[in-house]
Amino acid sequence: MPVQKRCSAWNRSPEMGKDSSYLGIDLGLAQYRTMDATMIAARVTESYASLFLRPNGDDGSRNTLIAMVGAFEVRLVGVPSVNAPAGLSLWVELYCRDIPLGVDSCKCNNLDEAIEAATLLAIQAGQLNNEAARG
Questions:
Q1: Which residues does residue 96 pair with via DSSP β-bridges, in sequence order?
Q2: CA of 68: how far to CAs of 8, 90, 93, 114, 124, in Å?
Q3: Which of 123, 93, 132 lies closest to 26 in space, CA to CA?
Q4: What is the mean pLDDT of the chain?
Q5: How many other β-carbons are positioned within 10 Å of the β-carbon of residue 128?
Q6: Measured distance CA(10)–CA(131) in Å, rounded
Q7: Which end of the chain is less enclosed by CB atoms within 10 A, N or C?
Q8: Percentage helix, strand, coil, to 5, in the chain?
Q9: Percent of the chain residues topping a pLDDT of 90
Q10: For residue 57, what is the DSSP state?
Q11: pTM of the predicted model as reported, rounded to 2 decimal places
Q12: In a domain, 110, yes or no
């Protein structure tokens, strides 16, 4: 079943193929030299597991870092669900630390969608970081 397009990142990455090898090219990743689909999948899975160990924020949400690209962070966010008070709605967010503001976000129904969203938002973060570096 294909992922529904819910965020602008899905409209911006024609370079990305199924193997996501584009991620390792020209992103300026601080922590991750080469970030392929397997690495992102592992980071999203680790972040998901740690999400439940994080304290709730003032609004009841929880977030954890998936990747950093320059001043940008790709985060996994659990937001309290209106439909299931004990559950969390899963979002992947692109956040800019320079302006402290969310740049983009994608609502995900499962981990597979979160992995795809994190991949696309990491590409978007790399593009934005490269544009900022060029000035």
A1: 72, 101
A2: 19, 19, 12, 16, 12
A3: 123
A4: 77
A5: 18
A6: 19
A7: C
A8: 35, 25, 40
A9: 47
A10: -
A11: 0.72
A12: yes
Q: Is 33 exposed, middle or buried (0-12, 13-18, 19+ CB in 10 A)?
A: exposed
Domain contains 109: yes
Q: Per the domain annotation, does 2 fall within a domain? A: no
Ranges 16-25, 34-43, 93-102, most confident: 93-102
Choose the weakest-confidence range: 37-41, 42-46, 100-104. 37-41
Q: How many domains does the chain have?
A: 1
Phi, psi of 121, rounded to the nearest 5 degrees: -70, -30
Q: Is residue 81 within 8 Å of 75, Cβ to Cβ?
A: no
Confidence (pLDDT) at 35: 59
Q: What is the pLDDT of residue 3?
A: 39
Residue 121 lies in a domain: yes
Helix (H) / strand (E) containing 44:
helix 37-51
Res. 94: pLDDT tops 80? yes
Domain residues for the domain of 83 are 26-134
CA distances from 21 to 36, 69, 87, 111 (A): 6, 16, 34, 20
